[in-house]
Fold:
Amino acid sequence: MADVHDPATRSRNMAAIRSRDTKPERLLRSALHKRGVRYRLHSKKVPGRPDILMPGRRIAIFVHGCFFHGHQCETFRWPKTRKDFWESKITGNVERDRRNENQLHAEGWRVAIVWSCALAGRGKIGIDPVADRLVDWMKSEDRRLEIAGVWPTPSSTA
Ligand SMILES: [Zn+2]
Structure:
């Protein structure tokens, strides 16, 4: 039986938790780094604590999990249990995200939202193509970018 007080076991467990929660985000950060993008993480001073940010360039990037941030995509399913709880939680998250983004724009930030369905799963675009699109956007003047997964539209059998 594994001893949870053993530092090696504990750090393995922590690594497993971290990689489960943030693996696509870490891969995206490293893909951006390879493209020469230098960034900071989760500054408390910036509305919404963006996952990736470049304060000098006023660029904020969020990597949003589709479930918790209420992305109405193919991966989103309302849980069958505790429906009211999840509905108010997720609706609250969506509203908070909108307020944070408005605040960022008001403070002169450019904002990119990367939905987790773009990074992993059946509809994924892939880590490298998402990183390429972010880098292209950084060079542009566009104030906002949103990258989501792509699902083939059901072919009409005409
Ligand atoms: Zn999604």
